[in-house]
């Protein structure tokens, strides 16, 4: 009851979209309960993170809470999207073998319904579950073409949707379905081969972006932040006499930006750069930005570790020179 009540605060514009991805992810929980749960859990988790973070890093409490709450909701939503895409990828990979197996069953003299059921091998994973579900629906009296079209509503894959539409067209036209399935399986394998060649050709761009984001950015930020510390200390000790008989080409005034502000700026910049770099990796490597979100934790950890290591090394080498 509480979860359903909380779900009413969720924007109606996104409720239908959330419901659809829950169906795609095969999460058999009432959408209102699921949304209410993540809202309540996100609220409590955001407060638990905001209090210590605001005191340790001297941040605004409400701002930290809002960022943590929105971040948690985005992470949950992206996790569901990635699980939807993973399910679709597994099914797409197993689809050619299933089509070829169904074709062999048809050539052996089985009916299309029986040939489809015998093509559901356990190693096909989610695809086998969908085929078995279609078999149950057909056994209960549902037309096979309608049961097959229902798969497109449970799997978010354009390739599977087009393949099912082609199979349904062959069933309704009464053509030679076995040859159609063989040709479709062959074309899907050719398409996978082309996709692999494309990914191998852009691998150099992936390596360059990963090196720039994971190594180049934290090293440059580490050296520049140390330089800011040096300049702040040196210029802070410079005393300019109030009375002078000559005009100076530069004007030295009090420094209003401290090392703490620079450190916060660098850390935030590295996190944002890691997120955008991961999305760029996903777009180049997989064709979708969200496919790169799985690299975000690794890149953020790597960039921050390298940044602090570079600062520690430079401080150890040059601290004596600048009397730090």
When the domains are counted, the total is 2
Mean pLDDT: 84
Order of helices and strands: HHHHHHHHHHHH
Share in β-strands: under 5%
The rounded distance between the terminal residues' Cα atoms is 61 Å
The count of DSSP E runs of length 2 or more, i.e. the number of strands, is 0
Residues in helices, as a percent range? over 70%
Structural class: mainly alpha
Query: What gross morphology would you assign?
Result: elongated
What characterizes the major β-sheet? none
**What does the radius of gyration come to?**
29 Å
Uncertain regions spanning at least 5 consecutive residues = none
What is the number of helical segments per DSSP (H or I, 4+ residues)?
Answer: 12
Topology overview:
Elements: H1 2-7, H2 12-24, H3 31-56, H4 61-107, H5 112-118, H6 126-139, H7 144-154, H8 158-173, H9 177-201, H10 203-236, H11 259-286, H12 296-318
Helix pairs in contact: 2-4, 3-4, 4-5, 4-9, 5-6, 6-7, 7-8, 8-9, 10-11, 10-12, 11-12
Describe this structure in words.
The chain is 77% helix and 0% strand. The chain is mainly alpha-helical. It has two domains: 1-197, no CATH class; 202-239 and 254-318, no CATH class.
